[in-house]
């Protein structure tokens, strides 16, 4: 549905996006997460045909955004950074204007539908400049989905909103995600936790992580990771430890006179490990616990 291949953008020699590739299938809701300056907006601008890549390609459905921009753009709804709107226009006028521009058949009816979905019916005859930021953002979403695109691309959709407005816009994004393929760019982790099923992390122009919903949830809950150094027969130890409930994974990190393992578990397994070692006459050299939250995963990945 969206296929980005070896995409690169340089601004006067500065590499903003560095040879990235990813695929998003139809119906996926994907968070595009990275710190400020990571290259998110630049990627989205290439993806939406706003400017050309230095290298690489973006395919939207069957169409290459550079070779067939009109066809490709038909399937994209784009809410750009800072949601630029015509402040002097009334909401209805603005949507009618876009309806005509995008050659939408029966645009009045479509505007009604979209106004209902984005909950802007009550402000449809107001001037855009008079609206609260929350309403402006909903008008931005309404314009993005007006031509009923299959793909919705949003750049920092809740930036500058107060907590109530953030919750409302997130709710709306979730609802839209039921029908559409969504790519949502943000530097805020809770944003992707609240709305997305998969997460792509970008840092310094490179994709450094791509995790599915389940993985994300596990990380978000903060799973237990135990670092264990032990003297024990390896096969026997692995056999017994893997049978324990809640143990999700075990990895041998180092092997010599002692063995070092990393054990991940849904609950704290230390007491159980201790008792198993005593029962089997194995020697614990060291055992401690690391709690991994999604926040720390993100920080670890995106720091120096
Ligand atoms: P993000 O959206 O993740 O905050 P951007 O895509 O806006 O990141 O920026 C990525 C990098 O490219 C940054 O280092 C930024 O300074 C640089 N950059 C962005 N736009 C321009 C531009 N028009 N000219 C020169 N450098 C730019």
Describe the structure in your own words:
The chain is 36% helix and 32% strand. By secondary structure, the chain is α/β, with parallel strands linked by helices. It folds into two domains: 2-218, Rossmann fold (3-Layer(aba) Sandwich); 224-298, Alpha-Beta Plaits (2-Layer Sandwich), CATH 3.30.70. Strands 6-7-8-3-9-10 form a six-stranded mixed sheet, with helices on both faces. β1 (2-11) and β2 form a beta hairpin. The longest helix is centred in the middle third of the chain and has 15 residues, at 163-177. The radius of gyration is 24 Å and the shape is elongated. The two termini are 33 Å apart. The mean pLDDT is 91.
Helix content: 25-40%
The H/E string reads EEEHEEHEHHHEHEHEEHEHEEHEH
Q: Radius of gyration in whole Å, from Cα?
A: 24 Å
Q: How many structural domains does the protein architecture include?
A: 2
The CATH superfamily title of the largest domain: P-loop containing nucleotide triphosphate hydrolases
H/I helix tally: 11
Strand order of the largest sheet: 6-7-8-3-9-10
Distance between the termini: 33 Å
| Structural class by SSE content | alpha/beta
Overall average residue pLDDT = 91
Bound ions, cofactors and other small molecules, one mention each: adenosine-5'-diphosphate
CATH topology of the largest domain: Rossmann fold
SSE topology:
Layout: E1 2-11, E2 14-24, E3 29-33, H1 40-47, E4 55-60, E5 63-64, H2 69-74, E6 76-79, H3 91-101, H4 107-117, H5 133-145, E7 151-155, H6 163-177, E8 181-186, H7 189-195, E9 198-203, E10 206-211, H8 213-221, E11 223-231, H9 234-242, E12 247-255, E13 259-265, H10 270-280, E14 283-292, H11 294-302
Parallel strand pairs: 3-8, 3-9, 6-7, 7-8
Antiparallel strand pairs: 1-2, 1-4, 4-5, 9-10, 11-13, 11-14, 12-13
Helix pairs in contact: 4-5, 5-6
The structure holds adenosine-5'-diphosphate.
